[in-house]
Amino acid sequence: MSLPPGFLDELRDRVPISRVIGRKVQWDARKSNAAKGDWWAPCPFHQEKTPSFHVDDGKGFYYCFGCHAKGDALTFLREADGMSFMEAVEALAAEAGVEMPARDPRAAEKADRASRLAEVLEQANRYYRLQFSTAAAAHARDYAARRGLDEATLERFEIGFAPDARAGAFAHLRDAGVAAELIDAAGISAVSERDGSRYDRLRNRLTFPIRDLRGRLIGFGGRALNPNDHAKYLNSPETALFDKGRSLYNASRAREAVARGGALVVVEGYMDVIALTRAGFGGAVAPLGTAITEDQLRLLWRLSPEPVVALDGDAAGLRAGLRLMDLALPLMEAGQGLRFALLPAGQDPDDLLRGAGPAAMQSLVETAVPMVQLLWRRETEGQVLDSPERRAALDKRLRAAILRIRDASLRSHYGAEIARLRNELFGRPRREAGRGPHLARGPAAPLPATRGTALAVGDETVEDRLREAVILATLITHPDLLPRFEQELETLECLHPEHATLRDVLLRHLNAGEDLRAAVRAEAPAALENLFSQRHVNRAPPVCKPEDSLLAMACLEDEVSLLAARRAIRREVQDAMQDIVALPDESLTWRLGQAAEAVHRAARTRVADANDLDEDREALLRILEQAGEVCNPKKR
User: Fold this and answer.
1) Considering the entire predicted model, what is its pTM?
2) Rounded distance, CA 591 to CA 579, Å?
3) What's the distance, CA 265 to chain centroid?
4) What angle do CA 242, 247, 248 make, to 5 degrees?
5) What element of type H or E holds 370?
6) For 163-180, b where at least 16 C-beta lie within 10 A, e where not — what string?
7) Of 174, 395, 449, 463, which residue is the least packed, with the fewest Cβ within 10 Å?
8) Which domain range does residue 498 map to?
9) Which residues have CB under 8 Å from 479's CB, separation 6+?
10) How many CA atoms lie within 13 A of 514 on its CB side?
11) Which residues of 431-445 are buried (b: 16+ CB within 10 A; e: fewer)?
12) Do 46 and 68 have their domain in common?
């Protein structure tokens, strides 16, 4: 649904972000200033002991200086509690005491029908639960007992029984006043093509209610109690509420468990989920009788950035994992992937828990392997790689798989890990052993007077550190500009530890004004002294002219822009060099093109002094030219 202009701003204004986040963190009393709405705590998104997570009520914004998580109250509800955007809006509106805006008539009609169908399903669920206690369900209770389903488990998962009657549920709902059309639309019954009569879709089966992330009942799963039944498991048909390719069993409860720090564990079916939950793994979910779809995979990533997929220890389980890997490769992003727990041969999670107990399952979850290991295993296991031709074929397969990853940074790291595994299998790459003599020659030895400098030892990041120093010194010299450059300062990745210290102090004293230097001196005296003792800092125009704020602003915009451009170029070069080692041949051409594109992007964003960037571009192209010679010796 669309929201009226200003509605989200009103919610943010009514509810301090610290109230939303305060339920998940313990504020640091020493660093926090409640009167100013300035809060600090250990980050809820990564494990740490020091309070590097900053919340600003005035700006309605949070930022972690450790993992760089950032956003507003809605972002926090989505990331910390796994809510969708509209769920987060509704939660914040409830917190603020504000009614959600009225929806358009068509949307309201659709939502009302969905509510009616959900209520029909709830009525059917109550019917199935009551039937489980009848004499006709004795064999269902026996089966549940054999599977270890005690009363608490039956109650928790609302397990019921669909009697072996042609239209028992339909008749019950009709007697309760539910329209036949609604019963059919909810997926409880259907019309026979043979004689036009109604029949229940679930008969002589244990019933498992399926709920969405909001906890709303959307369908049922049924486990056959007759071994001769045509389908062991049967789900509700596709309805206005139920799409099995977009749903996961136990998703709502799993989201709560993951938000409390539990692992999200993906298993095959209902009974595996129930067994894991009983053993303490509340974050267990399962697809609904089919291979995991792209929509289900995206839903898993909404719940956790790195779900653990528990594969049954047989050939079918491994094939399922490989299919999922191929589905995930083009969809993954940095910080968003899969890990795989490989169960013992012939066992599923329920078998493992019965035989070895929860500790064995916990060990498998904790030692789950990253997806790159599964990729390597698929391409090498059972292969005889005793000839150049076979090794080249392996390289081609691996290269094709890695190039399916769209995220450039992630693709680079996959290439590096594959290169490492390949090196372990085959030994040192020939490229390292056979480099040309022109690459073996080192630079001339530095003079004694300059031997210890960063430039002499070939530190290519020295210029970045110099620019960091000028940016920090300018902000300290011109404290009135600090609030204007707050966002740039928050995202500044400082290479020098003292620069990082100064950055954090400045962020804590954004509105100190003329008292800023005194505040910095009180908290970081050594870092402040070292900063202004550098010759290039003292000679920088905005530092030499503290009275010229316009000059300082122009210099800050220039330095921040160029620093961001240089680092973007360097990341592209690093990605290209990784691919040169790990992904020869056609992938090299692709990466060189990406690096060249990065240069041109940086050139377009340069604010001033384009000559500096031209020098960067020329240096980059020289590096790439040398890289091309390494990978294409015939061109020399």
Assistant:
1) 0.58
2) 7
3) 15
4) 135
5) strand 369-370
6) bbbebbbbbbbeeeebee
7) 449
8) 462-630
9) 512, 513, 514, 516, 517
10) 1
11) eeeeeeeeeeeeeee
12) yes
266 close to 307: Cβ distance less than 8 angstroms: yes
| Residue located via tokens 């450790």 | 66
Beta bridge partners of 345: 313
Rg, the chain, Cα only: 31
Element (H, E) at 189: strand 189-191
3-state secondary structure of 569: helix
| Other beta carbons within 10 Å of 98 | 14
Question: Per the domain annotation, does 623 fall within a domain?
Answer: yes
- Residue 244: closest CA among 296, 182, 172, 306: 296
First and final C-alpha spacing in the chain: 61
Mean pLDDT per 10-residue interval, the chain, length 636 residues: 72 86 89 85 86 87 87 89 85 86 70 89 97 96 94 96 96 96 96 93 97 91 93 94 94 87 92 94 92 92 91 82 94 90 87 92 95 94 91 92 89 91 76 38 46 46 84 91 83 86 88 86 90 87 85 83 74 56 48 53 45 47 48 43
Amino acid at 425: L
Nearest 5°: CA angle at 580, between 574 and 584?
155
Question: Which phi and psi angles does 333 have, rounded to 5°?
Answer: -135, 170
Q: Is residue 112 part of a domain?
A: no
- Cα torsion at 298, 216, 224, 194 (round to 10°)? -100
Q: Which of these three, 242, 266, 290, is where a domain ends?
A: 242
- Listed residues 378, 411, 430: the one ending a domain: 378
Whole-angstrom Cα distance, residue 519 to residue 64? 22
Instruction: Residue 31: count other Cβ atoms within 10 Å of its Cβ.
Output: 15
User: Tokens 């995202």 — which residue?
Assistant: 491
The one-letter code for the residue type at 391 is: R
